[in-house]
Amino acid sequence: RGTRLQLFLQDVIRQVVQCESASGDPSRPSFEAFAAAHVHSAAMPDSRVDSRSLQVVHPDGSDTTPLVASQPEKMEVAGSRFSKLSEARKAITQFSNQHSRFWSRVTMAASIAAYVTLFGMPVYWKASRVVIFGQRDVLVNGVEVDLCGSYDMGWKANIGNESRPVLVDMNATLIRDGVKASIWCGFLPTPYIHMWPRVVQVAMFTLLGSTGSTIKNMWQGIAGTFFAVMNVFLITALYPDGAASENYSPVVGWANLVLVLFLFLACSANMQTKTMGLLWTCCLMLHFLDPHTGPTVGTYRTAIPILCWDGETTMVLITGVMGASIAVFATVFPVPLLNITHVHDDALEVVNGIDTLFCDAIAYYCGKARDPRRHAIFAKMEALSQTVGRVSGNLADSFWETFNLGRFGRVRFLYEGFNKAMKISQDELYIIKAALQQLDFNPKHQHFAEELAQPLEALHANSIACLRLCTAFCKDGTISQGERIEITSFLQSIRENQDELGRRFKAVALAQSGKEAVSQEIAADALFVFSVTQWAKDLEGWATELTGFEQQWGRKDWLDTDSVLGVAVSQAKLMFSPYRMFSADRIRFVLMNGIPIIGGMLISMFSTTSIFIQYSKTMPATLALLTSADCGSTFFRNLQRLMGATFGHTLPIFVMSLVGIFECEGSMRLAVHSTSIFLYYFIFAYMYHASGQWGLIGLLISGFGCKILFSECTSQFNADDHLYAKHYKDIASVIVAIIFKMIVAGILAPKEARDIAIDLIAKLFTEVEAAFTQFAAGNLYGDDGVETRIARAKSLLADCEAQSPKTEPKLQVVPGMRADFKKNLYDVALAQVRLMLSDLDMLMLAQRGRMVQTAVVRDREIVTVTMACEATEETEHHHEKTVHEILTASEEWGTLEQDLKDTLAKVFRVCSIVLQHATEVPMAADDIEALKSTANLHVLDGVREFYAAVNADPVWQDSGAKEAGIRSVPQMRRVRILVSINALVLATQHSAEIAAACFQNMIYF
């Protein structure tokens, strides 16, 4: 068979080559016919196929059967099937490419649904249950006889008889006596069957959208489970029988419970770690505190002292690992969702996006008139930002797939450099957008476009070619000497393009403005050229870093935060930081989640009436799984939890009532039960991963439904009303638990969602206003400088955007007396503040005059040199102050500064007043009246006067000579002054947009 397969593969390769070399030859047989001939030859022993004539030849050569001539119909059918399969495969591939997001979600949902369906078979299919858990009973003369006990495992010998079996382990004596092992008692003790649904639940709560994120979730969940198990393991060593021990002290038991719950809630661990830790602490401690049972220590000993295979702590840990492993495996097979494999594809997508974006922007810049193309360019900018963010996510999650082992650490290090360079380039994209919005296609601009078109296109072409080359070199994790030389040659071309662009720009600018150093007429052109050349410099800096990658990797600190040891050390430091554990927000979080869990434990232990079942784990386990950082500010989220948990307990009852129509031993029962489970988990797993609004409900339905769906086949499910009563009591307990959590969260919530949002945006306004103030004062760096203020503002902006969905008035189930929150104004203000932060980034970029190191070849050696004038920190500082001093030295600067300060202060105060307004009467405030009477709010006063004052300065009388030694556009002071003033102008316009939105929301009269 191996020889025939080898010959077949050789003929396949030969035929493909022949078809490729002579495609279109009608005399040559088709590949489909060739494959069909081999299919028929396989049924004839010791025969082969002549690849030219497609005849089946016997070994002696005496008899030749012309397959094509004798069996044309069969060959045509086989070829047709082969062609249809090929076409179907192509159609599926095309569909998956056209709908990649939908396809990935469907495949993941189908994968996890198939895995949990197969994994659950030992519970609901008797034949599979016998293989895993052994044969627990047998029918003898119509009477059911017990065989394997709850703690029996492996093969056993029956030394009794069929009606009264006595099972013993095999030993040398039995073997010598000829006794054979005839009873199989499974791989696992019977108590594991009751933990089987928990495996599915852990799998659903662990599964995320990719392999890396799922592995991260897995490790965090296992860590939480391990610490909970270790706590119960240790306290069981102190009290072996739990609350039933003679020397047991209830104070010790409850103190242990409260302390462990506090540590889980107050530590800085991930939410998955907290959830799994709280869940198993509640479940295990509930058994420990039960004086009737105590902890389930087990009887089947392992090699580790006092550790048993059937002990509850052991089963919890093993089944937790099994569930998490199922979730990980679902992201690997059949469709791999590895983050590390997507990093390169996403990087290429970013490169293609940048290529298209800059190509379209240059084409629009060189066009003849303003047209709608600019809107498509702006939309592509937003899409590119999202793609760059996806690269960041894949890079972060890929650590958990690779742990930076082998070449993967090098690959991730290289792509992190790429990602940083692309994030830096976001500043240039915003400047390009600002330039294209301000372009006036007048004769002066046409002159610029005609002169700069060729160098702009050349710079774009070489920069993109270099970017593609560098991205390809990152894939294998090494930068060879030959690759370094290729990168260096491209860098030389990019520098030459920049020099040519700078030379032409200076010539055209001087011709357009004469002796005027700065002019409003050339501001948009200067912005555009500045952004394109600065983008090329950012790329040049990253490419230069690649040429020195091997040296950087050799000096890498293995205790940094990107290594396995570094992650462990940093997490250990943060985990139990007293400053974090006892902060006001963390204490509120502890109380908000801890009080309901403790209350659920008390109800489960001491309540024996109504809907509650004593020592039931339903209430505390539900509250542990629903642990969240939401301070109760949104009622809608709690309703989702209530809906998900309720449907998760009711829908499976309906499903199982339909499944129960079929007999347990019938084949239809297995088919219907497995199909029902697959569809159930496919639908709700897809809902979880596809729906941003309702995904939580899908997760809870799939997670809470496992206990009922994965139950043994028994007629009691449909006939026993007591069983139904128990399920409905569980549902009622879940509802009570969630309502209790909602009440506690509502009491402990510091403010309503709208009030939290108002406080956050007020802090954001303060930081933005302070950033512009610090710039005017010349405090660019330091603890209170502009860069620090920008960083704080961006952090606050992220918090504000996260709070925004919670302020939606439509989510209020029972609105109060206050008027609806003006969420549209809130969102408009956040959008404009984001643009203001981009203005500040532009302002700082213009002051900085960013310098890069670049690689050049000297005497056949690659060396790194610093280009332009900022070779040291001192000269850079001096160069930045030079531009800022030119701005602030002008007499008209005071007008600019004061107008911007007044505008920002008025607009921010009015916006806060309008957002705080909660009654149905007209707003009255001095700031509102002052803003109403402000004319030309969107215009920054003194801009033209400032340009005139700067041009009158003697230092600019011979501007061409002053900048003769500067070849790069981003280093020209005239360009950087234009960029600085333009950033201030744009900030004024963005504040005016906020003011307009404020007046649109003053609807009461």
Fold and architecture overview:
This protein has 1005 residues and is mainly α. Helix content is 68%, strand content 3%. It has 39 helices and ten strands. Strand 4 and strand 5 form a beta hairpin. Helix 1 packs antiparallel against helix 2 (31-41). Mean pLDDT is 81; it is low at 20-24, 65-71 and 850-881.
Structural class: mainly alpha
Distance between the termini: 91 Å
**Rg, Å, rounded:** 36 Å
The largest sheet has its strands arranged as 1-2-3
As residue ranges, the low-confidence spans are: 20-24, 65-71, 850-881
Largest sheet: 3 strands, antiparallel
| Shape summary | elongated
Strand segment tally: 10
**Fraction of residues in β-strands:** under 5%
DSSP summary: helix tally? 39
What percent of the residues sit in helical stretches (DSSP H or I)?
55-70%
Mean pLDDT: 81
